[in-house]
Amino acid sequence: MEKTLIIVKPDGVKRGLVGKIITRFENAGLSISSAKMLWLDKKKVNAFYPNDKEWILMLGKKNTEAARLRGEKLGRSEWEHGKLVRKWLMDYTASGPVVAVVLEGSDAIMAVRKLVGPTDCSQATPGTIRGDFSTDSILKAGKEKRVIYNLIHASGNTAEAKKEIKFFFSDKELR
């Protein structure tokens, strides 16, 4: 059985969507291995989100692509925008409680990513968590100088899932 991590972000907690979000995964046949609610301080958030060039550029590229799809330009480099988005992401994640959940099941990482939908909620289809519960977009967030309110974080691959699970849960806390 494969394990992966999701984090219901402050916007999902504030809107009271934790139960609805977790139910989606359970309905898809995934099991909760461990779960907890916590409020991360900025030091912990800084340790969680990568601060390497590749990840920061990926953030900037996502924003550049969202702008391009709408016929707009960001007005700053992908590197500069990626650094800014990382800062906004850190500030927002530390702004309220989150719920970290370890899910397990067959091909859990891929199943979770499909259920969650794309980072840019404006590109998420109905039936995905972001498609059904969020109306935000990367472009709107950038114009308002904030991170996208996309409700949930999901590990992207096996290595990331293992690292993120260890970040939030001790061996004792895992089933």
Task: Describe it.
The chain is α+β, with helices and mostly antiparallel strands. About 50% of the residues lie in helices and about 15% in strands. Helix 4 crosses helix 5 (about 80-95). The protein is globular. The model has no long low-confidence stretch (mean pLDDT about 95).
Q: Topology, pairings included?
A:
Layout: E1 2-8, H1 10-14, H2 18-27, E2 31-38, H3 42-48, H4 53-69, H5 78-93, E3 98-105, H6 108-116, H7 129-133, H8 138-143, E4 152-154, H9 158-168
Antiparallel strand pairs: 1-3, 1-4, 2-3
Total strands: the figure is 4
Write down the CATH topology of the domain at 2-49 and 96-169. Alpha-Beta Plaits
SSE series:
EHHEHHHEHHHEH
Instruction: Based on Cα principal axes, name the global outline.
Output: globular
Short overview:
This protein is α+β, with helices and mostly antiparallel strands. It has helices at 10-14, 18-27, 42-48, 53-69, 78-93, 108-116, 129-133, 138-143, 158-168, and strands at 2-8, 31-38, 98-105, 152-154.
